[in-house]
Design goal:
Strand order of the largest sheet: 7-6-8-5-9
Pfam families: OpuAC (PF04069)
Keywords: Signal
Oligomer: single chain
Order of helices and strands: HHEHEHEHHEEHEHEHEHEEHHHH
InterPro entries: ABC_Gly_betaine_transp_sub-bd
Number of strands: 10
Shape: globular
Structural class: alpha/beta
Protein name: Glycine betaine ABC transporter substrate-binding protein
Distance between the termini: 28 Å
Largest sheet: 5 strands, mixed
Helix content: 40-55%
Radius of gyration: 19 Å
């Protein structure tokens, strides 16, 4: 699977049931409600959902492996869609756990949030999350949005920071996943914080082959990529600096239904927090995106290699 690549079929399958759940009371992803059965059963099972990009899938399988090792039977439902789909699925009880990213998760619940460092974000998330949801302590790993141009574009337009983009309003084409058009860390925030306006926004994929191909070919002059993407350094692309801190910290954090956050689950997931660094996450991404290995196999091998499977 291509990293953060939109999977149209999975998204379509996820959207329709979610809408049905909103109107009818059945679970959106056909998962039996966790309220049924005994408390012991609820405590020993976990349904993990992931967004529609490969890094999030890897994280989901990492969560599953450490939970399985702790005696919690975990299943992964990958490629469910963007945050606008997977978070409501979590709230509806269709899944129990999501790998998330601090800054963008907070902005989802509070578009006017100003917290930017990891500690402040964690506190703000605790305050802003809807009843029934909670976040566990974050891992060391961080994967932030970055706005990237080629060396040629940086030289041609004199770009080194996001502030420089405003000098060329109406001239540049910006590419990224569809949701970036309406997100604060995207078109909206770039205009509000930096006064940037683009000639066009092209809806492509999230740090995947479409947007990177468009950046290479000149179909877009700037792409929304992700900081753990090894293709940035590989291609010599330039990540524009963010002097006004539009982009908040994005440490990886488990978002979980509060009734599933047992001591066993918390202890199991905490095993990842120190071992899973940004460097390690980038290596895992590369194994999937560049070496074309399966996310579940990559996760399992990593958990075993780091002594977390027992």
């Amino acid at each position: 699977m291509n990293r953060r690549n939109f999977v149209a079929g999975a998204l379509a399958l996820a959207v329709l049931p979610v809408l049905a759940a909103c109107g009818g009371g059945t679970t959106s992803l056909n998962t039996p409600p966790s309220a049924t059965g005994s408390a012991a059963v609820a405590d020993s099972t976990m349904v993990i959902g992931t967004a529609n990009f490969s890094e999030n899938q890897i994280l989901g399988y990492l969560y599953a492996d450490v939970l399985d090792a702790a005696g919690v039977k975990a299943t992964v439902k990958p490629n469910l869609g963007s945050r606008e789909i997977v978070v409501p699925a979590l709230q509806n009880g269709d899944i129990d756990l999501l790998p998330e990213y601090q800054g963008n998760l907070l902005l989802y619940f509070d578009p006017k949030a100003t917290a930017s460092d990891s500690d402040a974000l964690q506190k703000a998330l605790t305050d802003k999350l809807p009843k029934g949801l909670t976040v566990l302590p974050p891992a060391a790993a961080e994967d932030a949005d970055v706005f990237t141009v080629t060396k040629e574009t940086a030289t041609k337009y004199g770009l080194s920071t996001l502030a420089d983009l405003a000098k060329h309003n109406g001239q540049l084409v910006f590419g990224g996943p569809p949701e970036v058009k309406t997100r604060q860390v995207g078109v909206v925030g770039l205009k509000d914080v930096y006064g940037v306006e683009f000639k066009e926004f092209k809806s492509l994929d999230a740090s995947g082959p479409l947007v990177k191909g468009a950046l290479k070919s000149g179909g877009v002059q700037m792409a929304n990529l992700f900081s753990t993407d090894v293709d940035i350094a590989k291609n010599g692309w330039v990540t524009l600096a963010d002097p006004k801190h539009l982009i908040p910290a994005q440490r990886v954090v488990p978002l979980i239904r509060a009734d599933k956050a047992t001591d066993t689950v918390k202890t199991a997931l905490a095993k990842l927090n120190t071992a899973l660094t940004t460097e390690e996450l980038s290596k895992l991404d590369s194994l999937v995106d560049n070496d074309h290995k399966d996310p579940d196999e990559v996760a399992t091998e990593w958990v075993k290699a780091h002594g977390l499977s027992s």
